[in-house]
Amino acid sequence: MWILQKDGFRGMAAGLTNILLLMLTLSTGSCQGHAPLTLIKEGHSTYVLILPDKPVPHERKAAEVLRQYLQRMTGAVLSVIAESAYNGKTGIFIGRTQHAPGRLAGRLQYDGFFIATDDADVYIRGASGKGVLYGAYTFLEQYAGCRKYAGGEPAAVPRTKNLTIPSNIADVQNPRFVYRQSYYPASDDPEYLDWHKLQRFEDLWGLWGHSFFKIIPPEKYFSAHPEYFSLVQGRRQPMQLCLSSEAVLQLTIDYLRKAIQAKPDAIYWSLSPNDDGGYCTCDRCRQADAEEGGPQGSLIRFVNRVAAAFPEQRFTTLAYTYTAQPPRKTRPAPNVYVFLSSIDAYRTRPLSSEPSAAGFRKDLEGWAALTDRLFIWDYTTQFTNYLTPFPDYMHAAGNLRFFADKRVSGVFLHGSEHSYSDMAELNSYLHAKLLWNPEADAQAVREDFLKGYYGAAGKHIVQYIDTLQQTVAATGARLDIYGNPVNNDRDYLSPENIDWYSSLLDKAEAAAEGHPDLEARVGRARLPLEYVVLQQSVFFGAQHHGYITEDDAGSYSVRPHWPERVQRFSAQCATAGVTELSEGGMSPQGYLQEWKERFTRLPKHNLAADATVTLAHPYSPDYPAHGEQTLTDGLPAGKDYSAGWLLFYGSDMIATLDLHAARKVRTVMAGFLSDPRHYIFLPLRVQVEVSEDGAQYRSAGVQELQPVQEDFSVAVRQYAFTVPAGAAVRYIRVTAVCPATLPDWRFHAQKKPAVACDEVMVE
Q: What are phi and psi of 391, to 5 degrees?
């Protein structure tokens, strides 16, 4: 069980002044006047590994880790003995032995550790939990030159017959953050976690994340007790819980009593709203929210009441979207930890200076004034496109120092979870070092990683990463965790820049040639560029850089070798560990199938291809696609709202197409997207009108649509209209009426409904 002192967080600020990281380097100057210790010479050692007489499991494991790695490194086999069997020979004392220097033990906190030497012996001891194990792995890295660069891969171990370390080391290390997680595939490797002193929510939380419906599931309770759930738009709906309900409070306490008994080693329990809007507006909840300045009021009061029933337990709750702001009156209880999200900020700059993070910074200041039990939920990848080059890599250093300055106690860096993503290995490695010590030299850590992991190709990877970061700044691009590489086609991910980046990786591939491990690593680094090329090729269509060509007769065909290129990409993804291309998205095999279907649906010639399109209301600038010409470019969009659609938030789409001359028109077809998860709905009415002069219009048809019922599936719908035979048409006006309000089942106080249109096909 991972144990915290009862008053741990209150003492953290004072205790941090005692943190001594890397107090002594391996330079001989740091040990002037003291002979170094020769642990192993010519593959032999007089040292033994010494454990307490009654060692705990982590002490046993620490000794075994040292024994195995030192043997692998030098060939020397060190015995493991109990302290009672110690006969005065030179030793490496592991854990809470009687010989370990007490003067250093008093400076340890949480899962900190010390590594110490005197004129003869070595001492590694932890404070609690895995501290001693962290010390063993740190000894291997800092004093024996070993590295664990990536999860799922063996550690890099130097081959030598000799190992000498300085004498009189007093290396005391305590973590700056008591909770440290970088959520990337490396976290699936237990040794990687222990080596880098990282944690997983699965190991610490008995109940994690958005938990309300895990505690009181609507499928079990809503039918008989709708009053347990949120009152939204005047009626009870299974969107959130009613937090002023005494019955909800009692059910939650009953649930936790059983859950805690089933998981007695869990450190934290999450009491957090679902990942959605729809908070309760009943009289009592509304009164609490009015007093506290928002829906965070009823939440924090509810969580405090639950926490009071379990004073020995620790609870977390999310300050996220509508609960992000601190309450006006109520402080979190002593055993309540607030998890503040930075989800609304772009990643172009560190959070301390990013303009879009101003709200986050204000909320952070407010919560920090109320509690020293503050965690941060931060984001380090593009969730809509895991493989998009997303060069925020070095922002973690500034962000974590910023969090530390604000007395933050724990950090969850949310990456691509279990699926491989852009520079996942580098992100994990950097995060680990900086989560333990935000004052570490991030540039030095980066260089050490890139040189060690990529070998001779490392210098070219450095140039590639630096060029990416410099181009983002030079082009004024925006790094959006919900962005799309298609929308960066004119800035840092333009085809010209992609070619430039690719030339740098060509050099990396050449340097790695003949070394299969290095070739595979460089190949994974190139995958994001290939993904951008494929995604943008759909956007470009028959233009240069598109996946199709158009002959002189106006017929379309797939570019040569494109199917093989997609097939190769899908196979490389599977080999690299890409299990999904976006959060909850398709697999590489699903991506391949989508392309196969696309190859069978080549564009048709659109009579409106060269039309001038005029819009009565502006489209969303967040997803510009091809601007107005998106509607007539001959490329029907897929199910991804962020690529190839024109979105109209809270306004109707009224598009007028000028064909420049009267044409014989038979049909007009318009496509619309339904994606309720992203607040995009089918229009309530679609109308097509035609005109010869642009002044007098006549109707070509109207389709009245029923408001969509609760359904979160994504779908594309086409609506066709027949123009009276023989009519000469120059102007076509398409009107799509946007719903005035969000439906009750998708209500969110801070969102508006949108309509999304693509491809007004005129034949």
A: -80, 60
**How is domain 612-762 classified at the architecture level of CATH?**
Sandwich (2.60)
For the chain, what are the domain ranges?
20-175, 201-440, 442-541, 547-602, 612-762
Whether residue 175 contacts residue 110, with contact meaning beta carbons closer than 8 Å, is answered with: yes
Burial (CB count within 10 angstroms: exposed 0-12, middle 13-18, buried 19+), residue 648: buried
Please give the sequence-ordered ranges of beta strands (E in DSSP) within 75-155, or none if there are none: 80-82, 91-94, 113-117, 122-126
Sheet holding 113-117, edge to edge: 80-82, 48-51, 91-94, 122-126, 113-117, 170-173
Strands, E assignment, 567-652: 612-615, 646-649
- CATH 3.10.260 assigned to domain 201-440? The reply is no
Closest-CA residue to 667 (of 718, 610, 603): 718
**37-40 and 163-165: which strand pairing?**
antiparallel
Q: Is 78 helix (H, G, I), strand (E, B) or coil?
A: coil
Q: How far apart, in Å, are the Cα atoms of 660 and each of 229, 548, 615, 667, 695?
A: 57, 27, 16, 18, 15
683 falls in which pLDDT band (50, 70, 90)?
very high
Distance CA 590, CA 500 (A): 30
Give the phi and the psi of residue 181 in degrees, each rounded to 5. -140, 130
Topology of the domain covering 20-175: Chitobiase; domain 2 (3.30.379)
Full-model pTM = 0.91
Integer Cα distance of 459 and 453 in angstroms: 11
CB 306 within 8 A of CB 248: no
| SS3 call for 364 | helix
Per DSSP (E only), the strands in 538-644 are 548-550, 556-558, 612-615
The strand pairing partners of 268, in sequence order, are: 205, 314
The span from the CA of 416 to the CA of 648, in Å, is 30
pLDDT digits (tens, 9 = 90+) for 371-392: 999 999 999 999 999 999 999 9
Q: 3-class DSSP state for residue 414?
A: strand
Task: Enter the tokens of residue 348.
Answer: 């172009």
3-state helix vs strand vs coil in the chain, percent to 5:
35, 20, 45
Residues in contact with 23: Cβ distance below 8 Å, sequence separation at least 6, in sequence order: 169, 170, 171, 172
Beta partners for 376? 340, 411
- What is residue 554's predicted lDDT score, i.e. its pLDDT? 77
Gap between the Cα atoms of 342 and 357, Å rounded: 7
CA-CA distances (angstroms) from residue 173 to 22, 49, 125, 437?
A: 8, 21, 11, 9
Bridge-based pairing of strands 646-649 and 122-126 is: unpaired
